[in-house]
Design a protein that fits this description.
mainly alpha
Amino acid sequence: MSAANYGAIRSLPNFRISKYKDLLPAFALFLTASAPLPRGGHIANIPDLCLFYRITGFPCPGCGMTRSLVCCGHACWSLAFHYHPVGLLIFAGLVCWSIIGIARFAKNLTNREKLSISLGSGYSKQERAVSFLIGKVYNLAIIFLTVSLMIVWVGRLIRLIPWP
């Protein structure tokens, strides 16, 4: 490739989808709020699609999670807790993640040359430290949610927590 062609390609606008990745949690919240509320244990009469349940007859760790998130999207908190107690925590995490993502996206719109967030030399020590802390909090949240899912699953298997 000649230098002239390379310069022409570099000047093209960047239309990667990665610049919209910060809006994905907000889109997930929109989907939970737009789905119909579960009636009779099913959302819009969609049958159970859980392969684990169909094969073993036991609930999987995430059984009821979709119904719980949809109920959270409609602010039916007790019904959401009934379908899956961890769904409330995941929904709260989605709300926080959405707020952060929308703020990042808005910040990137005002500064078009930095559409993809990276930790390059253009960022201060404070920005790198904040990003590092967010990464640590994210990792701890994933560990906490995984342990919570396992606790609820074991509780359902030994019938301490009712299965929806």
